[in-house]
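dude i think i finally got it to work??
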Amino acid sequence: MWTPQVGMKVEVNGMGPGTIVKLTPAGALVQIERFRLQVDLKLDAMRPAEISGNNQPSSPKLEEKDETLDLIDEIIGAKGSHREAAAASTTSDTVGHTQSAPKPQPEQQVRRPEPQPPQSKRIASLPMDPERLQARKTLESLRFGLVPNGHIEQLTMGFSAIKDWAFASFPERGFQRMHKVVGPYGTGKSHTMAVLRYLAEQAGYLVAKVEVDGNAISLSEPARLVNALWNSVRGNGFETESPLLSLFERAIQYGYTPHSVANLHLTKLTDNMATIQLLARMGYTETYQDMIEGVLNGSEEYTATEVNSKLGKEPNLFLPQLKLRSPISRAVAERSHDLLEALVSCAVLSRMAGFKGLVVTIDEFEVEVNLTKSKQAQLMEVIEVLGSYMRGENRSLPASPLAVYFGTLGQITNPADARLDQICKQSSGMIYTLGTWQKEQRLELAQKIYALYQQSYMLDKPYSGKIAEEVHSLMENRGYDDSGMLRQFIKWYVTFLDMLYGPPEVPKHGAKSEAN
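look at this
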C-alpha cells in the first residue's frame, strides 16, 4: 500500500497523469493534466506515477458493446467498473462464463493505453456567440462541482415549484421576513439558494449572498459577515465594483436627501448619505471610490476615521462635515444590533435606489455548531435580535423590504437551527424542504446537461442514456452515498463527455482553430 502526498505525481485510471493537490479522508484531490480539471478520487483510482506501468490489468471488454461503452470501460478501469466479475484475475465472456486472464511475462511491462476521443468526433473551435459562451461558462462551473450562474431554469429540477414558493416568500408588501431552505447534504440547498437569487433579481430585488464556515465567516462575527454580504450585492442590470456607493448615488439622483431619511432612525444611513452627497457635489467620489466603498462595506482595509481624516485634507472639505461610518461598531455589545441595522439600511436603500428591496441568502448554516462558548453566545444573540425584528417587536427600526433565507440541515438538536425554526413560524416565515435525489432524477439531469453540451460545442450526436447509466454505476461502486453523489455525478458525467467528444483546447494567441 502506498501513501499519497501533496505534490506527488500519480497516474489516474483512464485519465492519464495528474498531481495530488490536497489529501481528503477517502483519498486525494488530483489535478488532471490533460483536462486541467481537479477531481476528488479514492486511492484505488490512482497509483504513483513511477510504478504506473507495472502489470496493470486492462479493462475487460464485452463483445457487443458499442465504441462509446468501450471507451467508458477504459476510462473507468477494471477496479471502478460495475462489471467487476473479473476485476483482478478473470474476464467475463458474453454468456457469463469466466476464464483466467493471460498473465504477462515477467520481463514485460503492460501499460493501459490512455483513451483518446475518436478524431472523427472531435469538435472544431468555431466563432463564439454570446449564448454558446454562456453555455461554456455554465459547463465550466459544472466541471468543478460549482453552482452555475447561468442556465438556472434549464438545470433546475422542479423549477416551477421553487418559483411558486419563492414568489410567495419575497417581501412584496415591504415587510421583513425570515425563511429556511432545509435538506440533508447533497439535496441541492446551494443550488436552490442560487435559484432564489435568480428569481429575486428577475422580480426586481437586489440580492446578496454568503456561505458561513463557522470560523472566518460566521453570524458570531458580524463585521466579516456583513463585508462578505456587501461585496456580493448585485441586481438585474446592476453590477458594479462599488455597489454600496452606487446605491447611495442612485438614491440621491432619485431625490432622496439626508433630511428626508432622518425620520427612519437609521443614523448610519443618514450620516453616510450626507457625506456622499457632499463628496459628489465637490467631485471627490470617483477619486476616493475604493476607500468610500471600503468603509461602507466594512472592509478591514479602511477605517472610517482614517478615510474621513484623509478626505478632510482636501480643499473645500472640513473634517466636521465628514461622517462616513462603518456598518459594524467595535463595541462587542453593539454588534448584533449593528448587523440588523446594516441589513435594514441596505434594504431601505435598495428601495430608494429603485429596487423592490433586498433578498439575502445565508448558506451552510449547519457548520455553526463547533463554536467557542463566547462565539456561541454571540451567535444566539444575533439570532434573537433578528427574530425580534422579524416578529415586529423591534420598534427602534422601521419595517423594511428585507427577506433573509437560511440554508440548513433542519437539525432540531442544534439549538441555533431549532431557534431559526421557531422564529420562522412566529413571524410568518416559510420553510422549503428538499428531498433526497433518486437515480431517475440524476439521469434526467444528465439529459439536461447533455443538451447544454450540445449547444456549447455544436454537437449533433444524439443523447445516449448509456453514458449516464455507466457514470452512475461508477459513482455507486466508488461508495458515494446521497450526500456526495449528486455533485460527483455531475462532475464525472461532464468529464466523460469531454473524454468522448473532445471539446477543443483554447487556441493560443495567434493560433488557428481547427475550423480554419
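The CA atoms of residues 180 and 406 lie 5 Å apart.
im so relieved honestly
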